[in-house]
Design goal:
The complex is a heterodimer of chains A (about 130) and B (about 160).
Chain A (H helix, E strand, L loop, with lengths): L2 E6 L3 H11 L4 E6 L2 H11 L3 E4 L8 H9 L9 E5 L4 H9 L4 E4 L4 H9 L13
Parallel strand pairs in A: 1-2, 1-3, 3-4, 4-5
Helix pairs in contact in A: 2-3
Chain B lengths: L6 H20 L4 E2 L10 E9 L3 E10 H12 L9 H25 L5 E2 L3 E3 L15 E7 L2 E11 L3
Classes of the chains: A alpha/beta (about 130), B alpha+beta (about 160).
C-alpha cells in the first residue's frame, strides 16, 4: 500500500523536487502551497507523514503545526520540517510541538530520504510488467 | 547606530553562502566573477527581506532567464521542463534566494543579529538592455556557473531610531 506524504511548501520548485525524489518509491504525494491549504489536505487525506515549510504566506508552518496538534484526528501525524529558517527559537517551538526532524535548506536528497524512511516504510516502486 | 556588519564581513558571508547552496542543492561549483558592469540579459530577480530588532535589509538574487532555466533543469531533471511560465521561473529563483538567505541569516545570528526571513518576492524582469536597479547595496557579489553569470547582494541597514 502506498504511503501518503503531504508536502506543504509555498515553492512549487520544492514540491516538484520532492515529487521527483519520491518517484522511485511507493508513495502517494499530495501538495499544498501554505499552512491553511495543508491543514485542509491533512483532514481530507490523513497522510502518513507531512513535510512542512516554515515561511509561507497565508499560514506559516508553526501555526499550521499548532492547529494540527490540537485536532484529535490529526495530532499524531509525524511531521518533518524542511525550511531555510534555522532560528533556534523556531526550532525549539516546533520541537515542543513534536516535530520528528528539522532539515535546513539547502538539503541533499539521500539524507532526507533516510530520515523519511526512519518514520515511514519506503518501498521501491514495482516495475510495470510487460 | 552603526551598520551591523562591515561590507567586508557581508562579502565574506556571501562568499560562503552562495557557493554552498549551488554545491549542496545543485551539485555545481561556482566561481567568483569579475564585475564587468554589464546588465544581465532578461534578468530574473528575487528578493528576501530580513528583519531583526535593530536592523533590517534585503538579499537579492539576480540571474538571467537562461541561467534560471539551466538551474531548474539541474534541480528537477526532466521535471525542469515545467518552467515554461514566468511565474515558475520566478519560483525557482525565489527558492534559491530563500536558501541563500537562510544561510546568510544563520551567519548573521552567529554574530548576534537574530532576524526573521520573509517569503521570497519575485521582481519582474527589466527590459532587455536595462541596467540592474541602482540600490544602496552594501555588498554585491558576482558569480559564474558554466555558461551563465549571476549576482547576489546583501543590504543590511540599522533601523531608524
Amino acid at each position: 500500500m502506498n504511503q501518503k506524504i503531504l508536502s506543504i511548501d509555498d515553492s512549487k520548485t520544492i514540491r516538484l523536487l520532492l515529487a521527483r525524489m519520491f518517484r522511485p518509491f511507493q508513495v502517494e504525494l499530495r501538495e499544498a502551497g501554505n499552512g491553511e491549504e495543508g491543514l485542509a489536505q491533512a483532514k481530507q487525506v490523513r497522510p502518513d507523514l507531512i513535510i512542512l515549510d516554515y515561511n509561507m504566506p497565508v499560514m506559516d508552518g508553526v501555526t499550521m503545526l499548532q492547529h494540527l496538534r490540537h485536532d484529535p484526528q490529526l495530532k499524531s501525524i509525524p511531521v518533518i520540517m524542511l525550511t531555510a529558517e534555522s532560528n533556534p527559537k523556531i526550532i525549539s517551538t516546533v520541537a515542543r510541538l513534536g516535530v520528528r526532524d528539522y532539515i535546513v535548506k539547502p538539503f541533499q536528497e539521500q539524507p532526507l530520504i533516510a530520515k523519511v524512511s526512519k518514520i515511514i516504510p519506503l518501498q521501491p516502486q514495482v516495475p510495470a510488467s510487460s | 547606530m552603526i551598520n551591523p556588519l562591515s561590507q567586508q564581513e557581508l562579502i565574506q558571508i556571501a562568499n560562503r553562502s552562495v557557493p554552498e547552496v549551488w554545491r549542496t542543492q545543485l551539485q555545481k561549483e561556482i566561481q567568483p566573477s569579475p564585475n564587468l558592469n554589464l546588465p544581465l540579459p532578461s534578468p530574473r530577480i528575487a528578493t528576501v527581506a530580513w528583519t531583526c530588532s535593530n536592523a533590517s535589509g534585503e538579499m537579492v538574487l539576480t540571474i538571467p532567464s537562461a541561467g534560471a532555466q539551466l538551474v531548474a533543469q539541474t534541480l528537477l531533471g526532466t521535471s525542469g521542463n515545467y518552467v515554461s511560465e514566468d511565474t515558475d521561473l520566478d519560483d525557482v529563483v525565489g527558492e534559491l534566494c530563500n536558501m541563500i538567505a537562510g544561510r546568510v541569516s544563520t551567519e548573521l545570528r552567529n554574530r548576534g543579529f537574530t532576524g526573521t526571513l520573509h517569503p521570497p518576492l519575485p521582481t519582474r524582469a527589466l527590459p532587455s538592455g536595462t541596467a540592474n536597479p541602482s540600490t544602496p547595496t552594501v555588498c554585491l557579489t558576482h558569480w559564474t556557473c558554466g555558461d551563465y553569470t549571476f549576482t547576489f547582494s546583501i543590504d543590511i541597514r540599522p533601523n531608524a531610531s
